[in-house]
Design brief:
Shape: globular
Distance between the termini: 14 Å
Radius of gyration: 15 Å
Number of helices: 1
Structural class: mainly beta
Number of strands: 13
């Protein structure tokens, strides 16, 4: 039986050489919930959550039904090394094409991805079966505060936080 490859939409976007990465904050007094609004182009399931933040630590990642403004699943990702991609497997969350979702991480440290050529980030960004529609953030009082759906602000200059998910599309 052949295993379907796992698509990592944001990681593949960062690897495509159009963006530069800058460590922006390593110990900010304010926490933020950062994330990406997205759709998938094929039905499938999310099988892992990921983070890549400047500090090692435990980070809560949540996936939202963007229309209903509800959390579908939250999972901690343990990032043992600073500024290194970390993953946490999840049981598999079915998601459908054309529906809007949001994935977020809560942190007080972050990287920024900026276009190498300057200017704005042009949405949508399509990588494989994942279509990123925008970036959003919201302030949080602490790392353990109730999840808060980020709003859509400042979504064309940079992408902060670096949260990702692994997606397996159905054939």
């Amino acid at each position: 039986m052949e295993t379907q490859p796992i698509e990592e939409g944001f990681t593949s976007f960062l690897a495509d050489s159009t963006m530069k990465i800058k460590v922006t904050a390593t110990n900010n007094p304010v926490y933020y919930e950062f994330g990406l609004r997205f759709q998938v182009l094929k039905e499938g399931k999310v099988v892992k959550f990921g983070t890549r933040l400047p500090n090692s630590g435990t980070y809560r990642v949540s996936i939202w039904d963007f229309t209903e403004k509800t959390v579908l699943l939250s999972q901690n990702v343990i990032q043992t090394q600073a500024n290194t991609q970390a993953w946490a497997d999840i049981s598999g969350l079915a998601i459908k094409p054309e529906k809007e979702y949001f994935i977020s991480v809560v942190a007080n440290n972050w990287n920024d991805a900026l276009p190498k050529a300057g200017g704005n980030i042009l949405y949508p960004i399509i990588k494989g079966s994942v279509k990123v529609l925008g970036f959003g953030y919201a302030s949080q009082p602490s790392a353990t505060a109730t999840p808060r759906l980020p709003n859509e602000t400042n979504n064309t200059k940079s992408i902060s936080g670096f949260v990702d998910f692994g997606f397996i599309p159905n054939n």
